[in-house]
Write the structure tokens for this entry.
Amino acid sequence: MLAATPPVTTRWAPSRPAWRAAAATTLGLHVVALLAVVTIVFALPRAMPGDPLAALQDPSSSSYLSDPVVREHLQAQYGLDRPLGEQYVSYLADLGRGDLGWSIERRAPVTSIVGDHLPWTLLLLGTALVVSAVISFFAGVNAAWLRGTAPDRILLVVMAGTRAVPPYAMAALLLLTFAVLLPVFPLSGATTAFAEYDSAWERVADTARHLALPGAALTIVLLGSKFLLVRNTMVSALGEDYMLLARAKGLPTRLMKYHHAGRNALLPFVTLMAAELGFVIGPLIFVEAVFGYPGMGSLVLRAVMTRDYPVLEASFLVLAVVVLVANFLAEAAYARLDPRALAA
């Protein structure tokens, strides 16, 4: 006998204890993950070759200091002359007070430095994720619906091609095409330097022009995997019994595509979106570096070159927290789409 509705739309409401247990388990796992991230964030910069104060001894460096006594004082100030165990305990204590330390290179509070860069990264990353999600989902649904036709084949080739292009190559291609050969968009930055705006709309328009190319580069990089997942999930769903029954009942095409078959693709789609956040940091750094975009990627790249431990630790920690929060929201969305996941 044919099922009347797709499996994911079956109504099932977990009991309140089940919700509480699931929430406690999820929160506990995220706390453990956060503790692991804090430890890795502390250890990773110190595992890198080089001394964070080496630039102070380099005559070609802008921060060169010729006095060794001053250098020793700076080592003591940043705790680099103490054993790693003591440095770790001090790092945890500072985090507990909300103190991210001082930048070795810039000699400024790390909190203010991160605060200047994080909003730009959230704007770029959020824009790319939302746009790529919308395009890939609707393109995947329609490609599966038209499977075997010319539009389906074209979309498959194009989306597979976007996965093969490295993010820095995609960014460089867009930069050369639309900022150099066809100077439609700015070369770099997030806003026009020293610009004076007569209204908030002018500021928004200027920011959007600077965001267009890096946002497009990151969006294109993120399209392929989500498109292929949605298409493959949809192709499998289209052969299910409930889809045959929906066709037999003469339901509208839009309802069958997006409500019946499309909802089955939402569950793995949300999971991939959350997992993708952990792998988007690399492309993000490349894109921001190519366009000179003042986000966390550019900050990390500069901190790596100067071995600025406090900035590296704070940057990695902030990016990791963003990923953990996004994963938590994805789990909440997953439970909302299919509450039976809480019973697993």
